[in-house]
User: Which sequence fits this backbone?
């Protein structure tokens, strides 16, 4: 419901027309002093309704009317009361409404109480009646000056802001159903720092003033419109987004914004705002406001003077909705080794049920502390306050994650300094090398693999082709590491998992398809069916690290097909059919089938993974023991130093993990490179070259998928440089890395050539050629035998072996037979081979 | 001992309040820092800390409320910070004058608090839920209790009668509580609740002969099943960011057992709760957990918290660096103690000296550093070939128990694996971290008995538990379950796996026991193993193991060079013979071997010796591979 961010000026402009009229909020939020500690700060500039304070606490309703009538003495023509009746809120007891509830303004739109601001009533207040009048007066006058100041401050801008604000209001009313105006506090700050300070320090006085200003402006513009209730201003993005951990007593009663995750929500609690009493004797009715959670039941009927004759009438009392929401620190904000803090939030009225457990939210509200209530039976009290936040504004940070990309959500706040450091780092010519060596420094060498993973961490640029019918292009780079056991593959995975904010780590051995995708389970409490998401969905926009990829069952692996190209996950389980986003990069590690890598075999043969899956990996690296002396020496040195270097030495040598993390986050958020003309040319050339290599030998050495991979890698490399343009050097590096990976994984061990078809079809072109040759030879052999309708299988194999100069394995023979059978030349039944036709 | 010296122990609040009162004329006096300093100084005096009674060994009802006590504990959970009245104004009942009072180190205020006073100062403190160190072995407890010089007042003197009355009050309150509690649920009462209540009662009337087990209706959330002792809500007033979950601490603080603390909620009548949503909205579970009866979970207001680098009562409390005399004397003896320990352990390991040597290395291992995700220094030992007769593993564990300060025996039976909770899990309805068996203090020895494992089906929980054990061994971390996400907590636990064949769990080092005893005589032999050596000898071993773990270690450039050369040479001969992983292990073995001999830097000899024993172990493994053939 975020409305277009309003220009701060507009709201303030409104206020100058209503000097010192009490807001409709007046009675619900009497001036409350800053109670503890910082009373020295209370003196300055507290804008506050200036109505006589004594009236506010008066339980008698009728006189409220004068006090609470519209804040607009000079108002544009207001609608008469009959509108009131037609208003949706009015169905119950219209007469009582008109008669004198503070909520029905004179104009058509009723005001609505703001319990989010008003619940301060439950806090200890300055008892104005008992306080010496001088103090009271002082407060009033102070607030007078405060308010005037505010007005003066904004007065200047009336002319300039009017136009804008009008437009805003119109947009906002037409777009949003709820008459709520969200205000970005940062805009307020840039407009007027002083006003912003007041908003932060005295939200419960300033926000009603804002409300008033907005409403006045609105009804001036649109005197005929009727809203469900009067417009409420909801500031958000206060100060800086604070961590829950930093809240301290100084924040009490101030406007704060913190981020967190919802862990529990309570049921809706109807909270009585105003009690309706009726005399049993004379049917005289009276209303009593709830004050600090209590109702002062009138003991004497003012009409007939009967004592104890008044009874509460529940359905004519006024209630507001309230909900307790518990939020917990988000795991990213936590210092290591501590448990997350939780905070209680109260949501009021339409904010109730806006959030669900599990949501990540930014919440803006007023921080409250309430002392534990004194127990009448105990002489002493616990000296502890209960704290909570009265929510004014929720912002879900992961709202759109399931359906699209939410730029806001991914935005991490970087301080100016940090951005500066990152940019300086990016400007260094060797930033790529620096970053790749900072990646998992405890793992020795494997530079290209680290570079590949680095590019994976950055990812390509997202492209949307849904208009042309192809949907989203995959921007995530998938990488497979294969190699001998004990070459720190797992360690690399673990490192990546620890580095990225939204990483998941699973092991192929332990995970079922269900654990990877999503499963339906019955919630033990509510007995509702709920969809529990698995690792792949959880790592949306992150990296899913899958160890022991080869140990995964086929059914599990088949799930990955969809994820790794379409980036979605379709689920049809227990009546829940949906498609979830899984825009995850996959970083997988696989061990060779024979525990040791067999250099005489192809990648496919070594790891026994279906080629359909393999072709979805952009880069496939082999992690092998190089077995060379110089390497051994360097490795030994590296390992030994690992065991005695002190922490400081290590710190010096390598980039901090936190810097790396920020660097990646920054690049992912802010850098969106596009291909330059030269780069496109270079890519085309590279692709054509790749195709050419193969065509010379009658095989295909590149497919469009490889071209896409190249583009992704080039984009990622541009991101590493913080460059908005993909240039030739990016393409060069992408080409190099791609070639490097291919050299390792797609080299045909029989010929020594790079052959992409190993990965795309599972068989090298030479092997395929050989198969055809054998089939031809077999056909010739059979033809040579003349008209023999049936032959013995074993006999045929031996004949073929005798004839051929190459060794013919049984498998090869079988394949040849199958090839001939496909041609409808023969059929194989058991141990006999029959000719057809 | 002069009684005056004990004033700061018996009435620490008096000291604090005195300082507070003195500071009133001088706003910048920094009395808070001074008060903390005062107690720190007093505790530094020779043996002063032994005068302070310990919650670990003195039953709670023997301790005077508001006196200084100490508690040796592990931070099991961290609650939310709380705001309290640091300074408040109250009306003195006798003079009717308003006086400022100090709310620090207290849970409750005196009567007549003026909530709206402008002089109120709100301050913040942090609550930790602390439990006694899990798996602490009996000898540690006894040794600590033995060295205590705290005077726990005998029951004939004045103090206990006063105390007794306070307990009766408490009891009355409890009764009231429970009645109030019962009223709402009209259904049959759960027997446990009744039992728990009865338990409380009995405790009041009976002579407090021993520490009673916690009343069963309140789960004190100990990580390990069968643990005893009080748990405690520790309130920290400064630098709480420096504490981490699972830290072990010795806390000196003011004991608060005011009955007013016990779940205030229970006393609320229904009418008030209706209109006071701030209180009724916390669930009953949450209240039970966060304000348990003070008679079971006392509050402790921290004056001084000391992190424990080790939990060995035999070692001097100062760090090794500060105690050079002690260090040099122990270092010189280490080689001989090691030889003794070896002869002690060899018969227990069925006469296998090599295995005994590896066991020593394992017992002194310690994660001393982490390089990104890689924990350095861990040395998980898989002792395969353990006989399954005559409960050998249990006996073996008993020996370990005698040697290390804290340990835990985990029989990996199917039932245990499927039913026990290993990984701590956040319970959001009670808002606490429900502990699990893997929430252990650093350097705890975890003994996994795989001989208990039989064929059968591991269910989901079982698979998760095995995964958790695997993660613990490989990465020395436990992923705590926070329902919506997991949070990783690094740990430092020595895992020893006893198994018949190779363990199903990963390990840093596997050694197959070569029994010198023929199977027919096994049972006879095992029952004759001398389990209880002399106390003095045991103490020597205990000190030795703890000291060896605390030593610093370095490798000189020279040795680095020769290690590199060795590695290159070995690879030249046969690249398959040694991988990077092997070198990792050899470096750890060499490190531990040097430390076990009291050498703080690697010498050429130690390196060669490490190579030698690794060679022996590997050759034994290969032999063994040929024998049974189901090895990888």
Assistant:
């Amino acid at each position: 419901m975020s409305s277009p961010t309003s220009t701060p000026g507009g709201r303030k402009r409104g206020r100058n027309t209503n000097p010192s009229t009490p807001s409709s909020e007046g009675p619900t939020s009497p001036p409350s002093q800053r109670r503890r500690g910082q009373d020295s700060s209370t003196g300055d500039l507290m804008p506050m309704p200036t109505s006589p304070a004594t009236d506010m606490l008066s339980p008698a309703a009728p006189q409220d009317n004068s006090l609470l009538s519209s804040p607009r003495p000079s108002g544009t023509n207001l609608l008469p009361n009959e509108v009131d009746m037609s208003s949706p809120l009015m169905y119950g007891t219209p007469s009582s409404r008109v008669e004198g509830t503070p909520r029905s303004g004179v104009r058509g739109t009723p005001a609505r109480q703001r319990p989010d601001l008003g619940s301060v009533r439950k806090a200890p207040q300055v008892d104005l009646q008992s306080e010496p009048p001088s103090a009271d007066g002082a407060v009033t006058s102070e607030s007078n000056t405060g308010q005037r100041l505010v007005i003066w401050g904004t007065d200047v801008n009336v002319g300039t802001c009017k136009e804008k604000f009008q437009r805003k209001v119109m947009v906002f009313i037409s777009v949003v159903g709820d008459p709520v105006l969200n205000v970005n506090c940062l805009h307020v700050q840039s407009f007027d720092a002083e006003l912003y300070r007041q908003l932060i320090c005295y939200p419960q006085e300033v926000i009603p003033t804002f409300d008033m200003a907005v409403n006045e402006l609105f009804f001036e513009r649109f005197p005929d419109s009727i809203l469900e209730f009067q417009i409420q201003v909801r500031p958000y993005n206060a100060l800086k987004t604070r961590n829950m951990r930093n809240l301290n007593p100084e924040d009490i009663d101030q406007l704060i914004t913190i981020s967190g995750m919802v862990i529990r929500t309570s049921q809706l609690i109807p909270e009585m705002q105003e009690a309706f009493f009726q005399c049993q004797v004379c049917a005289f009715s009276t209303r009593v406001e709830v004050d600090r959670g209590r109702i002062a039941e009138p003991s004497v009927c003012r009409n007939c003077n009967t004592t104890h004759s008044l009874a509460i009438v529940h359905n004519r009392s006024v209630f507001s909705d309230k909900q307790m929401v518990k939020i917990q620190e988000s795991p990213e904000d936590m210092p290591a080794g501590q448990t997350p803090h939780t905070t209680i939030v109260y949501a009021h009225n339409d904010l109730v049920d806006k959030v669900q457990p599990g949501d990540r939210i930014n919440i803006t509200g007023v921080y409250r502390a309430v002392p534990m209530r004194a127990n009448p039976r105990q002489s002493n009290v616990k000296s502890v306050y209960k704290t909570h936040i009265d929510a004014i504004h929720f912002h879900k940070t992961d709202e759109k994650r399931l359906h699209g990309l939410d730029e806001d959500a991914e935005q991490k706040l970087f301080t100016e300094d940090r951005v500066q450091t990152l940019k300086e780092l990016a400007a260094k010519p060797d930033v790529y090398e620096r970053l790749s060596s900072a990646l998992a420094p405890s793992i020795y060498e494997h530079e290209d693999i680290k570079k590949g993973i680095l590019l994976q961490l950055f990812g390509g640029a997202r492209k949307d082709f849904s208009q042309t019918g192809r949907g989203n292009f995959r921007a995530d780079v998938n990488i497979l590491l294969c190699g001998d056991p004990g070459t720190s593959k797992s360690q690399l995975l673990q490192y990546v998992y620890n580095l990225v904010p939204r990483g998941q780590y699973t092991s192929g051995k332990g995970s079922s398809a269900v654990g990877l995708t999503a499963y339906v389970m019955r919630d033990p409490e509510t007995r509702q069916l709920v969809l529990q998401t698995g690792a792949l969905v959880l790592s949306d926009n992150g990296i899913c690290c899958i160890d022991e990829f080869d140990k995964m069952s086929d059914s599990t692996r088949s799930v990955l097909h969809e994820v790794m190209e379409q980036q979605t996950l379709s689920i049809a389980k227990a009546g829940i059919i949906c498609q979830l986003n899984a825009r995850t990069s996959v970083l997988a590690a696989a061990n060779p089938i024979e525990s040791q890598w067999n250099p005489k075999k192809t990648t496919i043969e070594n790891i026994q993974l279906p080629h359909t899956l393999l072709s979805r990996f952009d880069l496939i690296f082999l992690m092998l023991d190089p077995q060379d002396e110089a390497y051994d020496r360097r490795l030994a040195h590296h390992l030994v130093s690992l065991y005695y270097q002190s922490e400081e030495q290590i710190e010096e040598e390598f980039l901090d993990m936190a810097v790396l993390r920020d660097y990646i986050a920054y690049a992912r958020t802010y850098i969106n490179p596009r291909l330059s003309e030269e780069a496109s040319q270079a890519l085309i050339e590279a692709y054509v070259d790749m195709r050419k290599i193969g065509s010379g030998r009658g095989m295909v050495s590149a497919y469009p998928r490889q071209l896409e991979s190249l583009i992704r890698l080039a984009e990622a490399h541009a991101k590493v440089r913080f460059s908005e343009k993909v240039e030739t050097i990016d393409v060069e590096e992408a080409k190099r890395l791609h070639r490097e990976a291919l050299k390792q994984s797609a080299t045909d061990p029989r010929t020594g050539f790079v052959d992409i078809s190993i990965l795309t079809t599972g068989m090298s072109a030479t092997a395929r050629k050989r198969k055809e040759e054998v089939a031809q030879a077999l056909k010739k052999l059979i033809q040579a035998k003349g008209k023999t309708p049936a032959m013995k299988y074993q006999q045929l194999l031996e004949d073929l072996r005798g004839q051929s100069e190459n060794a013919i394995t049984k498998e090869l023979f079988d394949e040849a037979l199958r090839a001939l059978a496909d041609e409808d030349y023969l059929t194989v039944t058991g141990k006999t081979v029959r000719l057809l036709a | 001992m002069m009684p005056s010296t004990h004033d700061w122990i018996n009435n620490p609040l008096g000291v604090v309040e005195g300082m507070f009162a003195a500071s009133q004329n001088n706003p910048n006096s920094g009395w808070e820092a001074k008060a903390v300093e005062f107690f720190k100084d007093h505790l530094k005096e020779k043996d002063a800390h032994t005068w302070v009674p310990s919650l670990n060994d003195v039953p709670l009802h023997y301790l005077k409320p508001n006196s200084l006590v100490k508690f040796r504990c592990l931070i099991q959970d961290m609650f939310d910070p709380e705001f309290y009245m640091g300074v408040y104004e109250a009306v003195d009942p006798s003079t009717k004058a308003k006086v400022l009072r100090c709310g620090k180190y207290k849970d409750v205020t005196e009567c007549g608090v003026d909530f709206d006073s402008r002089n109120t100062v709100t301050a913040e403190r942090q609550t930790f839920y602390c439990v006694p160190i899990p798996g602490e072995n009996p000898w540690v407890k006894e040794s600590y209790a033995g060295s205590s010089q705290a005077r726990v007042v005998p029951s004939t003197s004045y103090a206990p009668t006063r105390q007794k009355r306070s307990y009766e009050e408490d009891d009355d309150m409890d009764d009231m509580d429970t009645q109030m509690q019962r009223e709402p649920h009209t259904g049959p009462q759960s027997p446990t609740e009744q039992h728990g209540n009865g338990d409380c009662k009995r405790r009041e009337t009976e002579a407090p002969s021993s520490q009673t087990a916690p009343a069963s209706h309140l789960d004190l959330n100990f990580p390990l099943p069968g643990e005893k002792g009080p748990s405690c809500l520790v309130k920290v007033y400064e630098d709480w960011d420096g504490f981490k979950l699972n830290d072990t601490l010795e806390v000196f603080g003011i004991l608060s057992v005011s009955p007013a603390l016990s779940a205030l909620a229970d006393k609320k009548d229904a009418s008030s709760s209706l209109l006071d949503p701030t209180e009724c909205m916390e669930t009953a579970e949450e209240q039970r957990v966060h304000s348990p009866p003070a008679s079971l979970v006392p509050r402790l207001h921290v004056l001084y918290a000391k992190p424990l680098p080790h939990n060995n009562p035999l070692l001097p409390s100062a760090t090794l660096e500060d105690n050079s005399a002690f260090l040099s004397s122990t270092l010189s003896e280490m080689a001989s103690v090691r030889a003794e320990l070896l002869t002690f352990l060899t018969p227990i390991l069925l006469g296998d000296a090599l295995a005994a040597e590896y066991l020593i290395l394992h017992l002194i291992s310690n994660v001393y550093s982490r390089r990104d995700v890689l924990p350095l220094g861990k040395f998980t030992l898989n002792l395969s070939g353990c006989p399954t007769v005559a409960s050998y593993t249990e006996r073996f564990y008993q020996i370990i128990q005698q040697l290390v300060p804290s340990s835990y025996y985990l029989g990996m039976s199917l039932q245990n694996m499927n039913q026990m909770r290993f990984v701590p899990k956040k319970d959001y309805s009670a808002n606490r971290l429900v502990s699990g068996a893997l929430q252990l203090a650093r350097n705890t020895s975890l003994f996994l008995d795989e001989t208990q494992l039989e064929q059968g089906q591991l269910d989901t929980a079982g698979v998760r538990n095995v995964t958790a054990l695997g993660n613990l061994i490989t990465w020395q971390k436990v992923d705590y379950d926070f329902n919506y996400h997991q949070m990783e907590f690094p740990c430092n636990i020595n895992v020893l796996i006893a198994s018949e064949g190779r363990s199903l769990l990963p390990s840093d080092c596997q050694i197959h026991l070569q029994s010198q005893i023929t199977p027919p005589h096994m049972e006879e032999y095992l029952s004759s193993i001398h389990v209880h050596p002399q106390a003095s000898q045991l103490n020597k071993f205990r000190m030795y193991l703890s000291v060896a773990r605390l030593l610093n270690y370095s490798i000189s450039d020279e040795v680095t060079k020769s290690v590199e050369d060795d590695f290159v040479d070995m690879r030249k001969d046969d690249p398959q013979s040694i991988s990077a992983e092997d070198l990792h292990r050899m470096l750890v073995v060499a490190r531990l071997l040097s430390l076990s001999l009291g050498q703080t830097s690697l010498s050429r000899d130690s390196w060669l010796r490490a190579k030698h024993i690794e060679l022996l172990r590997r050759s034994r493994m290969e032999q063994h591979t040929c024998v049974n053939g189901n090895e990888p």
In short: Chain A touches chain B through 95 residues (CB under 8 Å). The longest strand of chain A covers residues 384-396.
